[in-house]
Model the fold of this input.
Amino acid sequence: MNPVLAAFLANVSFAVSDIVIAVLIKHHNSSLRISFWKSILTLVLFSPMLFFSRGELQSMTFYEWFQILGLGIVLAFGSLFFVRGLADGNAILGGVIGGSFPAVSALVAVFFFGETLAVIEVGAIGMVLCGVLLSSLSAGLSPTSQSKGTPIWYSLGALLLWGVYFALIDIPVENVGWFLPQYLSFVSLSVVYLAMIKFSKETDCMRLPKPLKFFAISIPLGILAGLFYNYAIGSADTAVTAPIAGSSPAIYVLLAYVFFKERLRWIQLSGVFLALFGIVLLAM
Done:
């Protein structure tokens, strides 16, 4: 499959998966519970594919295990922050800010892998970051309005952690293939959430949230998105494929408006569209 096509399919799958989870979160308002069960059910669906990866699994070194499981912890907190930002704040702002991680991924790829960016790509990254900053500040992210801006802090945390994860996961993908890094990341992610549940005050985390149809839609799409993404970055430069796969906020915003009809101030809209334009420009 063409890596650019795989990145585009990851784009669409990420957007639809995220919007379905956002609807479920607004219904239950329990970010840890939703995150935990999404990771567990993902592992259940993923597990049969281990049969086809026994050779790679047996040949993995200690360093590769450490690398993947460590990145899984980064993914766990990034995903939890993203879900928490959606639960407590505006779904459109949270989705756009968290979904702008390709700009961070591209910068990390340049720093760690020595990949180069064209002038237009540098400008696009600047537009994304400016758009995120504009949206964040206008949403109350300031020292005097911390309570109002708390959901934005979570979304910014997701932006940074996802950016690091989706760039550095390219290292194990190139060594052991595109399936095991994603599967083992979810193993690490599930363990982190289980530990957090043990020390949390949420008593209903171990009960499966309903209706299950939301998981039935979101989880397979999330799995496909991750597999398409890992395949794409394993077949082409991360600085090229990550922005394409990550331009899903453009689709997410349209879906979020349809489902939530949340209003934004004009300055917030300006930041959203500036970030979206930068992401799309980065993907071209």
About this structure: Residues 62-88 form the longest helix (27 residues). DSSP finds 14 helices and no strands in the chain. The radius of gyration is 18 Å.
